[in-house]
């Protein structure tokens, strides 16, 4: 990316690394750990640390994963709830009951179960990732297809999320109620039927942060505005690195 490349060209990464290593660590975060792990030279043969290019690549990944996916999920959220005003009303009622006008805290945020269900359903019906790759560590046969150890396979997340074998309610409809309550039709789905952040040891490292961030923004939106269906918008999607909405529009009405 241009910003990170410019940062590299001006050798700010190197100076930051030297400065960082010369001072005692006051706080640890991902960026400081990446910088402190830089090799002294890109030609370092000891196999320790990362190169400047690897640092740039990781910074670009953090920007993409932390911004692009979150904004895409929120776009889908506004589109889906604009078609379901009763969903917005239930969210507003729950938020008003547990939060009122008091500052948001982790305690009252965790009580918002219906908001959780709306987020979960948004991620189910519109996962940002097209697919997730995995490598077989043993020979296996799936649906009569033989696969060998070391082969790579792609899991089509959107197909998995809408496979009728995995869901009791219509998998192609936006229905947060499928998850709401212990006796909800799809509350006890197979753990690998829903993979918006991947699964297993290689699942998204930032999924908890992303979930909290998305939930906070959804709460703030529902405390201030209502999304209305814009006639003529026909939905659809565009598939790039993330699956983004196509030909989608909503009206925003500020609440009194």
Automatic annotation (TrEMBL):
Keywords: Heme, Iron, Metal-binding, Monooxygenase, Oxidoreductase
Alphabetized SUPFAM superfamilies for the sequence: Cytochrome P450 (SSF48264)
Keyword flag Oxidoreductase: yes
Short name of one Pfam family: p450
Database matches in Gene3D superfamilies: Cytochrome P450 (1.10.630.10)
InterPro entries for this protein: Cyt_P450, Cyt_P450_CS, Cyt_P450_E_grp-I, Cyt_P450_sf
Binding site for heme: 204
Cofactor names: heme
One GO MF term attached to the UniProt entry: iron ion binding
Family designation: Belongs to the cytochrome P450 family.
Name of the featured protein: Cytochrome P450
Protein species of origin: Didymodactylos carnosus
